[in-house]
Amino acid sequence: MILPIYILGNAVLKEKAQPISADYPNLHQLIQDMFDTMYNANGVGLAAPQVGLSIRLFVIDAGQFDEQYKDLKKVFINAEIVEQTGKEWSFNEGCLSIPDVRAEVIRLDTITIRYFDEHFQEHTETYNDIPARIIQHEYDHIEGRLFIDYISPFKKTLLRKKLDNLKEGKVQDIPYPVKFAKEAKKRDSYS
Fold first, then answer.
1. Which of 49, 60, 98, 154 has the fewest CB atoms within 10 Å, measured from its CB?
2. Among the options 118, 138, 143, 183, which is catalytic?
3. Does the global pTM surpass 0.70?
């Protein structure tokens, strides 16, 4: 099922998400729905807060970004980045929750992350380059951060009208189902 993606201005996007257990209601269906929603919106990652759920879950498919990463389709549950290293590098990021807005974001190029997969098997893995960036971007969502939190005040000023229009639901022609803050009065439930 394709879920609506919560747009900038929804409080759930700024909350630190809560851990879940293996018996979280309808977890496997939620994971499938998140992948379906991500693919429908031509994304490379999607976090549970982006579909209105303040839980520590995100999915990625780096193969959507570049064929060389075609085998990097993963589910991250209760993830914790344990180390960030390497060199800083800038990349033009965007977000399904902030459509038609892109900005240069500086991140470190290597991360080590501990997480559970969809079978609740624990992993600790190291990623670099584009996969590390995708994971960091989605991880930020479960921490209540957005990529625009990393941009300069000057750049935010330049984007202010676009960002305000998104928060107020004054944007049309988004090519996937969305939920603006004014439409999300109560939190959706997946159970």
1. 154
2. 138
3. yes
